[in-house]
Write a structure and sequence with these properties.
This protein has helices spanning 30-40, 89-95, 152-163, 213-221, and strands at 17-24, 44-45, 55-60, 63-68, 77-83, 106-110, 113-117, 123-128, 139-147, 167-172, 175-183, 186-192, 204-209, 225-230, 233-240, 247-256. The chain has 289 residues and is mainly beta.
Length: 289
């Protein structure tokens, strides 16, 4: 008789949030955004939707950044990026340094990653594809928010009890944090940070819920629905302690159902190594994993 193998089946659970699809940040200048996100990071402007000067959608694997050109928003924390072509990242970032002079742009190689800051102060930790983020070859594995001291446990319980997403507490960068599963190889991380918290400026994340109506009812009962968008979407901003309703952290969630017309839309990802003078036939598309 074959030896019975033991598996931890809970590691395969996703819970209710099946994808963190995009992060939305206002930018004041689309030219500078193109230099950083497209030329520097090597990401791909969506060729089909939002192609005018008022907003840019930027593809990174199966995920996106939405960059409306009508102001400035700064993520309170940072986002992680897995880049399939990580080995060329430092060279690309160096190539845009001169044109981004006078902005908040910077980059620095750290152990196993490169940290990059956009012209307006948004911070990104860029990693090579590998086992650190499961099967993800190109995409957004996590968004990390800086939250007040003592907030991690309440945030964990909010997502577990109201949103029905697997959540746990642990440590990130040596600080207490809540970790929320938001899709295969994707997490929201809420890292406790001492000191004054940055003011919420309206930036948002977009997620897909398998159970669309259950969290809606629980949020509505608590007065937490901030926008009734349409049949396929609603929004909420305030994360509260589920026991007493006390506000803990504010970040807008654009919640979509799996019936949303954009769910599962294939995204184009270019190979940023392609050049007209060194063109390789058949190598235009980047493998996203």
């Amino acid at each position: 008789m074959a030896k019975k193998m033991k598996f931890d089946r809970t590691t395969e659970d996703l819970g209710n949030i099946i994808s963190l699809e995009h992060v939305n940040l206002l930018v004041p200048d689309q030219r500078l955004a193109t230099l950083f996100y497209i030329s520097g990071l090597g990401l791909t402007r969506d060729p089909y939707l939002m192609t005018g000067p008022d907003i840019m959608w930027v593809n990174v694997g199966r995920h996106q950044f939405h960059l409306p050109t009508r102001g400035t928003q700064v993520l309170r924390g940072h986002a992680g990026l897995v880049l399939n072509d990580f080995d060329s990242l430092e060279m690309r970032l160096e190539s845009v340094r001169k044109e981004l002079k006078g902005t908040k742009f910077s980059f620095k190689r750290e152990r196993g990653r490169i940290d990059a800051t956009c012209p307006w102060g948004n911070k990104y930790r860029c990693y090579p594809a590998g086992k650190q983020f499961g099967k993800m070859g190109h995409g957004i594995p996590y968004v990390c928010f800086d939250v007040p001291k003592g907030a991690a446990d309440s945030i964990k319980r909010f997502y577990a009890e109201i949103i029905a997403a697997p959540a746990r507490t642990g440590s990130f960068d040596g600080a207490p944090a809540a970790f929320v599963c938001v899709g295969p190889d994707q997490e929201l991380i809420f890292r406790e940070k001492a000191g004054r918290q940055a003011t919420f400026d309206g930036h948002h994340i977009q997620v897909y819920f398998a159970d669309f109506s259950g969290p809606y009812r629980r949020l509505l009962d608590r007065g937490l629905i901030s926008k009734e968008t349409d049949q396929h979407e609603y929004r909420f901003e305030m994360i509260v302690d589920p026991d007493n309703g006390k506000p803990v952290f504010q970040i807008e969630h654009e919640v979509r159902s799996l019936h949303h017309p954009l769910y599962g839309r294939p995204l184009v990802n270019r190979n940023p190594a392609q050049r007209n003078m060194t063109y390789q036939p058949g190598a235009d598309t980047l493998r996203v994993g």
